[in-house]
Write a structure and sequence with these properties.
- The protein is α+β, with helices and mostly antiparallel strands and 499 residues long.
- Among the domains are: 2-123, N Utilization Substance Protein A, Chain:P, domain 4 (2-Layer Sandwich), CATH 3.30.1480; 135-221, Nucleic acid-binding proteins (OB fold (Dihydrolipoamide Acetyltransferase, E2P)), CATH 2.40.50; 228-296, 2-Layer Sandwich (GMP Synthetase, Chain A, domain 3), CATH 3.30.300; 402-468, DNA polymerase, domain 1 (Orthogonal Bundle), CATH 1.10.150.
- It has 19 helices and 18 strands.
- The strands form 5 sheets. Strands 1, 2, 3, 4 and 5 form a 5-stranded mixed sheet that branches. It has a 5-stranded antiparallel sheet with strand order 8-7-6-9-10. A 3-stranded mixed sheet has the order 11-12-13, with helices on both faces.
- The longest helix is centred in the N-terminal third of the chain and has 28 residues, at 107-134.
Length: 499
């Protein structure tokens, strides 16, 4: 008999499979090994017994006693003289159960059977894992860092000896992790083994050898991660007294949360907590990322004003109600705050309100080609809390500087490239201000910009021209960066001679 206690207990603990299922799987692979050696498994008998906490397996074969002259099959038959050596009472026609040693099976048979058993365990484990984590889809779970792939994705232990993947694109730029470190992640989606295999063939796993495993995709950048933290930290949200109407996020920079209450409760005060303790706790969970909590308003003009916090907005005017376009008037010293670093604040405000929002000072607004009469009517409706007014004509949009947008000097403003002003304005309205932002977009995001084929070609040709030059130099007169080989500065007209 073979003692399998330790092996079975290890499989039960590691794979979360019942003892009966483990025994049945072992039975199947032993039968397979027997069949590989003897050509049939119809007469093999495999039984398990437990004695004093130890599990034993016994393998036997049933053979029919036959006359020596009719002995043709050594697997299913046994001649009478051999049978009597085992049991002196044996007679022709009897069935004898003869014990076998599994280790006597040939090595290739055992190896083949073992591989089948391992695959069987894998299929069982995948099914168990899929069911368990499919129920956690859309929730936040505790994870631990196992390793990092060459592509920068994190492989995380999500519990029960199961791994999930945190793609690089789902990691906040504020965050970095070490092996063994714990973190909370949002379960973005769970795909079964067949689906995961299809995705792997299409490049679903970057820098990691494909496996036929359940794929658990995690996120640290989803707005839903912040929503889950709010629900856990703010009882009034969890019990329905306060509703999160909308939540938008630019991971690593800022999150905006619009809330309203269904009771006599200050939704902002309750969400932020006494001295801001609740919101600070959540900010610590996302490595200090700023969170703006604003009050939801059904009046879109007031909502737009609220959404541009921390900037102070003097008033909001509707430019085109059908197209949901508005302008927010702010003081000169509030422009940078309203737009935010890399344009993040106004971009999130647009997403939160589902309106296109321009930020202007009063002087800039006065220069817009809108008749004084229509402007007065728009301002009057705003003061009365109305829905706003359609403005007929708008002057060309302002082209912002890097300083106003909070953009690094290393980045290239679209307005500095040889692109048409109409194309630059169109991209700016979609919150794209630099070439780096445009080319870092996914194909789907670029399709959402609504660019024509000619406009796309214009952008690509512009960048292609710049990429032809591997080196550059600084003009000694105006200090502009110019491509290597330039003979005359297009900015200050200085001519150059190269040796």
């Amino acid at each position: 008999m073979v003692n399998l206690t330790e092996a079975i207990n290890e499989m039960i603990a590691e794979k979360n499979i019942s003892k009966d299922m483990v025994e049945e799987t072992i039975r199947e692979f032993v039968k397979a090994a027997y069949k590989r050696k003897f050509g049939t498994d119809e007469n093999v008998i495999i039984s398990f017994t437990e004695d004093a906490g130890e599990i034993h397996m016994e393998v036997s074969a049933s053979r029919v006693v036959v006359d020596e002259d009719n002995y043709y099959n050594e697997v299913t038959e046994i001649p009478l003289d051999e049978a009597k050596e085992l049991n002196e009472d044996a007679e022709i026609g009897d069935e004898l159960v003869i014990s076998l040693d599994p280790q006597s099976f040939d090595r290739s048979a055992v190896q083949s059977a073992k591989q089948r058993a391992q695959q069987s365990f894998k299929d069982i484990q995948n099914n168990y894992t899929y069911k368990e984590f499919k129920g956690k889809e859309g929730k936040v779970i505790q994870c631990y860092v196992n390793s990092m792939t060459p592509a920068g994705d994190l492989i995380l232990n999500v519990g029960n000896n199961t791994e999930g993947i945190l793609p690089k694109k789902n990691i906040s730029p504020l965050e970095s992790y070490t092996v063994g470190e714990g973190l909370k992640c949002y379960v973005e989606r769970v795909e079964n083994a067949e689906k995961a295999e299809d995705l792997q063939k299409m490049g679903g796993f970057r820098g990691r050898k494909p496996k036929k495993d359940v794929r658990i995709v995690l996120s640290r950048t989803s707005p839903e991660l912040v929503r889950a933290f709010l629900e856990a930290q703010v009882p009034e949200i969890d019990n329905g007294q306060i509703e999160i109407v909308n939540i938008v996020r630019e991971a690593g920079f800022r999150t905006k949360v619009a809330v309203r209450s269904f009771a006599d409760i200050d939704p902002i005060g309750a969400t932020v907590g006494l001295r801001g303790i609740r919101i600070q706790t959540i900010m610590q969970e996302i490595d200090g990322e700023k969170i703006d909590v604003i009050k939801w308003e059904d009046n879109p003009l007031q909502l737009i004003s609220n959404s541009l916090t921390p900037a102070r907005v003097n008033k909001v005017l509707v430019l085109n109600a059908d197209a949901r376009q508005a302008v927010a008037i702010v003081d000169e010293n509030q422009v940078g705050l309203a737009i935010g670093q890399r344009g993040v604040n106004v971009k999130l405000a647009k997403k939160l309100c589902d309106w296109t929002i321009e930020v202007k000072t009063q002087a800039e607004y006065d220069q817009m080609e809108i008749s004084q009469e229509i402007r007065n009517q728009a301002e009057a409706i705003f003061e009365q809390g109305g829905e706003g007014l359609i403005a007929d004509e708008v002057a060309e949009d302002k082209i912002y500087t890097k300083e106003e947008l909070g953009i690094s000097e290393d980045e290239n403003l679209l307005s500095d490239l040889p692109l048409s002003r109409e194309l630059v304005t169109k991209l700016n309205r979609m919150d794209v201000y630099t070439a780096e932002e445009y080319f870092n977009m996914s194909d789907e995001e670029r399709e959402g910009l609504g660019l024509t084929e000619d406009e796309i070609a214009e952008i690509n040709s512009c960048v292609a021209v710049e990429e032809e030059y591997e080196d550059s130099f600084e003009c000694p007169t105006c200090h502009q960066i110019l491509p290597a080989g330039t003979l005359k500065c297009p900015h200050c007209m200085t001519e150059f001679v190269f040796e």
